[in-house]
């Protein structure tokens, strides 16, 4: 599988979420622009952002606080490193734990002050999308703020 917290052999699905629109942008589109500083126009046209709400409190593994990492015997490199094989094994072990966590709360690799979470597929029924997907191009003012913030340009 392709991403950090994905199932190692594709045996379950995950949903990646950013804590705000900047995090969502960086985690989905911006990370590909870090070297070139160019965000492909086609990605901005095709992708968007949605707000979600959980219908019950979610049980997330805390990888943001040092205490949370220490409690599970992990270190920050799980969400900061570029090798995904180890984090995918952790994801599976955490998902399979008898406590049945709903996902993982972690720091954004590309903008560490921001946080993100990944939800495991077994909690899909408790997640609601609030309103339609808003395409990045539908809000040019917000898109310009995000591009300026990260010193990106449309390519």
Helix content: 25-40%
Distance between the termini: 28 Å
Secondary structural class: alpha/beta
- Unreliable stretches covering 5 or more consecutive residues: none
Strand content: 25-35%
Q: Could you report the average pLDDT, rounded to the nearest whole number?
A: 92
- The helix count comes to 6
How are the strands of the largest sheet arranged? 1-6-5-4
Instruction: State the order of secondary-structure elements, H for helix, E for strand.
Output: EHEHEEHHHEEEHE
Query: How many strands?
Result: 8
The major pleated sheet works out as: 4 strands, mixed
Shape: globular
The quaternary organization reads as: single chain
Radius of gyration: 16 Å
Number of domains: 1
Brief descriptors of the model:
31% helix, two-stranded parallel sheet, four-stranded mixed sheet, 155 residues, single chain, alpha/beta
Overview of the molecule:
By secondary structure, this protein is α/β, with parallel strands linked by helices. It has one domain (about 15-155). Helix content is about 30%, strand content about 25%. The protein contains six helices and eight strands; from the N terminus they run E-H-E-H-E-E-H-H-H-E-E-E-H-E. The chain has helices spanning about 20-30, 40-45, 65-70, 75-80, 85-95, 140-150, and strands at about 15-20, 40, 50-55, 60, 105, 115-120, 125-135, 155. A four-stranded mixed beta sheet has the order 1-6-5-4. The chain is globular, with a radius of gyration of 16 Å. The mean pLDDT is about 90.
